[in-house]
């Protein structure tokens, strides 16, 4: 009972930190304006490294549940964040559990970044963009136009995925990974 309470308390604290960080969004140059970098996956990956993949998933889920009340995307953005965040956290946590050293962390974060990028590309292509079209009545051409303003190579859905979604998630994964490498060992004793 005590162990479960400690675990849930740690998850809740990290989810709270992730929720706050989710509110701080930064635009990335050469990206469509609706793709903004937030640092909310840092508490999730720290939790996943310290407490396991389930904790990472719970943190990602909780931050999105807490954020949905202030959404402008009818919950689609939060669903996207959950799917993509889970695509980052789970493989990274699984690898780090097997290799708990700096090399393992680098391998885990690299795998997580590539996994997140692949999940983001697939989910945006087959699920999220069609959902934006139907739920928010946002024409595909409007999405493509927003992408084209940032990058003239974007001319259709496939080029939107290749020149916006993929690079955005690679940049996000690299930034989150570098920050995690800088802070995890300092925070790890607190979480253990």
TrEMBL record:
Keywords: Cell membrane, Membrane, Transmembrane, Transmembrane helix, Transport. It is a multi-pass membrane protein. Gene3D superfamilies: 1.10.1760.20. It is found in: Cell membrane. The keyword Transcription regulation does not apply. The chain crosses the membrane at residues 12-30, 42-62, 105-128, 160-184. The keyword Nucleotide-binding does not apply. InterPro entries: ECF_trnsprt_substrate-spec, RibU. Belongs to the prokaryotic riboflavin transporter (P-RFT) (TC 2.A.87) family. Probably a riboflavin-binding protein that interacts with the energy-coupling factor (ECF) ABC-transporter complex. PANTHER family: RIBOFLAVIN TRANSPORTER RIBU. This is Riboflavin transporter. It comes from Sporomusa silvacetica DSM 10669.
């Amino acid at each position: 009972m005590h162990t479960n309470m400690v675990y849930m308390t740690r998850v809740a604290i990290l989810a709270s930190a992730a929720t706050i960080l989710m509110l701080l969004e930064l635009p990335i140059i050469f990206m469509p304006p609706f793709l903004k970098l937030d640092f909310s996956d840092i508490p999730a990956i720290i939790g996943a490294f310290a407490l396991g993949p389930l904790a990472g998933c719970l943190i990602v889920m909780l931050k999105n549940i807490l954020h949905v009340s202030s959404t402008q995307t009818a919950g689609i953005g939060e669903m996207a964040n959950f799917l993509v965040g889970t695509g980052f956290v789970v493989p990274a946590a699984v690898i780090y559990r097997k290799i708990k050293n700096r090399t393992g962390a680098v391998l885990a974060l690299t795998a997580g970044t590539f996994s997140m990028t692949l999940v983001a590309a697939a989910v945006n292509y087959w699920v999220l963009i069609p959902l934006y079209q139907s739920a928010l009545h946002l024409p595909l051409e409007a999405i493509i136009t927003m992408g084209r303003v940032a990058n003239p190579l974007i001319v259709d859905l496939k080029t939107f995925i290749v020149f916006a979604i993929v690079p955005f998630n690679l940049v996000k994964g690299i930034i989150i990974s570098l920050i995690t490498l800088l802070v995890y060992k300092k925070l790890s004793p607190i979480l253990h």
